[in-house]
């Protein structure tokens, strides 16, 4: 079946529908097992739309970001508003640049990136030299 036909049947792109289904299944499991309390505020997460998955400890600046990212013991569930609010408390980006009004870009999905990292990421992508979260670059600056 074509993607267009699936989208027509589901009323949204197939990938979006798959994501929503996975999130609904996860939320159901969390409710059934009593693991539906927010990691941040400890209140019960009431709706699937409020559910957010986050890392307990940031993975970007970790000694081994890949291991930290995929460590399921480092994963927690929270209200989306608590998770987004917690990120707003960060004063520096993963590479140590201060978030200031002049130095911060906020994207439509509410993600933040300091302008210096954004410039470096764009430069690196043009040069093919790697990712923004390259820990070797961070160590070289220190």
What does this structure look like?
By secondary structure, the protein is of the alpha+beta class. It folds into 3 domains: 1-34, no CATH class; 36-89, no CATH class; 90-142, no CATH class. Helix content is 44%, strand content 11%. It has helices at 3-10, 14-33, 65-70, 80-88, 115-127, 135-141, and strands spanning 51-55, 75-79, 104-106, 112-114. The radius of gyration is 18 Å and the shape is globular. The N and C termini lie far apart (53 Å).
In terms of topology, how is this protein built?
Blueprint: H1 3-10, H2 14-33, E1 51-55, H3 65-70, E2 75-79, H4 80-88, E3 104-106, E4 112-114, H5 115-127, H6 135-141
Antiparallel strand pairs: 1-2, 3-4
What attributes does this structure have?
3 domains; 44% helix; 11% strand; two-stranded antiparallel ribbon; two-stranded antiparallel sheet; 6 helices; 142 residues; alpha+beta; globular
């Amino acid at each position: 079946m074509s993607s267009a036909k699936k989208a027509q049947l589901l009323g949204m792109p197939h990938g979006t529908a798959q994501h929503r289904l996975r999130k609904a299944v996860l939320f159901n499991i969390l409710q059934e097992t009593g693991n539906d309390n927010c990691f941040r505020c400890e209140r019960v997460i009431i709706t699937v739309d409020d559910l957010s998955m986050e890392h307990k400890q940031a993975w970007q600046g970790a000694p081994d970001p890949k291991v930290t990212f995929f460590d399921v013991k480092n994963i927690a569930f929270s209200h989306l508003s608590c998770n987004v609010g917690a990120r707003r408390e960060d004063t520096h980006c993963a590479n140590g640049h201060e978030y200031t009004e002049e130095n911060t870009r906020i994207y439509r999905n509410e993600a933040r990136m300091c302008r210096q990292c954004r410039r470096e990421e764009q430069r690196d992508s043009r040069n093919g030299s790697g990712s923004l979260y390259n820990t070797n670059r961070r160590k070289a600056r220190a």
